[in-house]
Amino acid sequence: MSIALAGRLPGLFEDEHEALRESFARFLAERVTAETYAGWGEPDGAGVPPSFFAAAAEHGFVAMAIPEEHGGSGVEDPRFGAVLVEAAMHAGLPAVALALGQHNDVCVPALLSCAQDPVLLTRLAGGRSLTALAGPGALTARRSGDVWVLDGSCPAVLGGVHADVLVVIADAGEHAHAFVIDAEVGGLTRAPGVARFGLQAADFADVVLDGVRVPAQRCLGPDTAESVLVGQRLTLAVAAVAGARAALDWTVQYVHERRAFGQPLAAFENTRITLGDVAAELTATSAFVDSCLLAHAAGALGAATAAAAKLRATELQARAVDAGVQLHGGYGYMSEYPIARAYADARMLRMFGGSSEHLRAVIAQAAGV
């Protein structure tokens, strides 16, 4: 039902995008059972494992922007990454959506913005080397001769446990700069994050940089730092809208099946008003995020617009899962129901990649406030 009301821009996705979506959905259905996903979230599970990326790479789902001569597809169209994120969210696998989206659509393009070791590119294309994004936050960078010295800490780095290479956004004075560092470099320590309320299957680590020395050629500069944040926030917006759509789907199905006082919950006016409001906001927000995807594909998505997309999408997802929990009644608070898990997972997205409060400040500054 919600798919028909999704507000997708006509012509946004072409046949090859939809074919990739369907192929990835089949891959997930075959490879990631509910038990498998739950196991990744156990205390000793360490999140989405490297073996998942290696298996996904065999089907062309990983690091698609890597040039063909290094084993990739040479595809830079962000819509291909978006359909993978949407498929994973629709399957109720947000940790997969976020990890793959960040790797494919944020970190790998940043690495390709400067010369890289061909061996690394081949390993990335094969899913044998993984990436993570650290910052912005309490990370600083200062120039010292022909190197940069990085210090600070960054909690909850997605992909931080298994990453071989990190893209780091650090405050370098007037502007933030992006850097590429090896995960095993001296002065970098990382530890798995503590137990979380949601997104248990995500690979989060707390990363500390203590005098990490980075060669000048591995400084990607302020422009790449901004493009990284734009890509990250758009990817999160895509995930959040897809998560809201999934929550609406689950809830619509439930209110048609669940009966009270001799009739389905869907027959009650309160149910229709509540879900109608969610569907209306989903229609508008989905169209906005879709337009951002097209702008990003054309290299024309600005930082404030990306911030607005992430803000609106994650706030929408929060309202969608909250309405879903409420209409599920007591079942909505039981972890075996996907709406309950989505409720816990969605909360992190309003903090991750720039909190809602920070994004409002970014948007206000762009508006001249």
From TrEMBL:
Domain Acyl-CoA dehydrogenase/oxidase C-terminal: 224-366
Cofactor(s) required, per the database record: FAD
InterPro entries hit by this protein: Acyl-CoA_DH_CS, Acyl-CoA_Oxase/DH_mid-dom_sf, AcylCo_DH-like_C, AcylCo_DH/oxidase_C, AcylCoA_DH/ox_N, AcylCoA_DH/ox_N_sf, AcylCoA_DH/oxidase_NM_dom_sf
Record keywords, A-Z: FAD, Flavoprotein, Oxidoreductase
Highest rank taxon of the organism: Bacteria
Positions of the Acyl-CoA dehydrogenase/oxidase N-terminal domain: 15-115
Transmembrane regions: none
Stored Pfam families: Acyl-CoA_dh_1 (PF00441), Acyl-CoA_dh_N (PF02771)
A GO MF term: acyl-CoA dehydrogenase activity
PANTHER family: ACYL-COA DEHYDROGENASE (PTHR43884), ACYL-COA DEHYDROGENASE FADE28 (PTHR43884:SF20)
Name the record gives this protein: Acryloyl-CoA reductase (NADH)
Gene from which the chain derives: acrC_3
